[in-house]
């Protein structure tokens, strides 16, 4: 995995884990996936902010740590 980008055009406008999003994160994800079926919630972020490496890197790092822990626990059994 490469280094996390230092900057991007979104600044602090990343949706992250839902911090700063108005309402339920699920409403934002539903609109992101099917905008024609779900209205845009207040404070919706554009697709490029969701897909930005600065937004996804922490999610990927957390997932990898979780998988490593799961693998270690499986080896202990």
Description:
This protein starts with 24 loop residues before the first helix and ends with a helix. It is extended and about 50 Å long. The protein contains three helices and no strands. The protein is 48% helix and 0% strand. The chain is an all-alpha fold and 77 residues long.
At a glance:
The protein has 77 residues and is an all-alpha fold.
Mean pLDDT: 83
Order of helices and strands: HHH
Helix content percent band: 40-55%
Radius of gyration equals 16 Å
- Low-pLDDT residue spans: none
Q: Determine the number of helices (DSSP H or I, runs of at least 4 residues).
A: 3
What structural category do the secondary elements indicate? mainly alpha
Number of strands: 0
- How far from one another are the termini? 29 Å
Outline the biggest β-sheet. Answer: none
Strand content: under 5%
General shape: extended
Features:
48% helix, 77 residues, mainly alpha
Topology:
Blueprint lengths: L24 H9 L13 H4 L2 H24 L1
């Amino acid at each position: 995995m490469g280094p996390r980008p230092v900057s991007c055009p979104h600044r602090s406008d990343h949706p992250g884990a839902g911090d700063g999003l108005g309402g339920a994160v699920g409403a934002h994800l539903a609109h992101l996936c099917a905008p024609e079926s779900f209205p845009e919630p207040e404070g919706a972020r554009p697709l490029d902010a969701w897909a930005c490496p600065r937004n996804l890197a922490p999610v990927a790092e957390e997932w990898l740590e979780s998988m490593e822990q799961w693998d270690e626990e499986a080896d202990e059994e």
